[in-house]
């Protein structure tokens, strides 16, 4: 199979132990190991995290590290990473999640068997504290036509699961900082550039979530970010006025009007499948 890179970003608030588990899950524990693991250190980090980065760097030869002077946010870090990776195939990974051992083998095989596909993701489970304490599952559609339909209303890919062709992401403008939505914004622009999507039906990543994660997905800043994407899709003709009004109304109700406790319940019951 072709060589590929894994792109990660780490910043000052990341937990060193969680970060190590995440890196090990995409390297020594994979049935198909990456040719490169590019870690973007997004601004200054405390000594205990820096020490873990350096230890991993010494243990795993595929690791390459780029240090940024200032913290510029995930979108900016990933933009730089996409420009600096060594290979055309790029897999994303977050700094505290756990990839399935055969994740890359499955995704690289899919891209090899489906040369028309530009980006492939998969399903995720979500856990609190212990990896076995799974509290939910986010399922996304698998076929390109289904994914494109989802894109008009919700983010159709689980960001931490995607493996994509670097050239196609760059053609669409690369990652651009967009509060909590740098991934969704890129998928929309990749769709505009004629990219084809897929999701595997398999769970590819076990995602670490906090107890209050669902309930915190709200507030004016979060709503404005989401509304901005709806504005963009309306202006570009991806959605019409009816869909736009529905999408914005739902987001306003959930993200602005609902108290945190109710919002958390809505996310758990409507947007997640119990595992």
Could you describe the 3D structure shown?
- The protein is α/β, with parallel strands linked by helices.
- Helix content is 41%, strand content 20%.
- Strands 1, 2, 3, 4, 5, 6, 7, 8 and 9 form a nine-stranded mixed β-sheet that branches.
- The longest helix is centred in the last third of the chain and has 17 residues, at 241-257.
- The two termini are 33 Å apart.
Q: Tell me what portion of residues adopts beta-strand conformation.
A: 15-25%
Radius of gyration over all CA atoms, rounded: 18 Å
Q: What class would the helix/strand composition place it in?
A: alpha/beta
Give average pLDDT, whole number: 92
Number of helices: 10
Q: What overall form do the CA principal axes indicate?
A: globular
Largest sheet: 9 strands, mixed
**Poorly predicted regions:** none
Q: What distance lies between the first and last C-alpha atoms, to the nearest angstrom?
A: 33 Å
The topology string of helices and strands comes to EHEHEHEEHEEHEHHEHHH
Q: Helix amount, in percent?
A: 40-55%
Query: Which quaternary structure do these chains form?
Result: single chain
Number of strands: 9
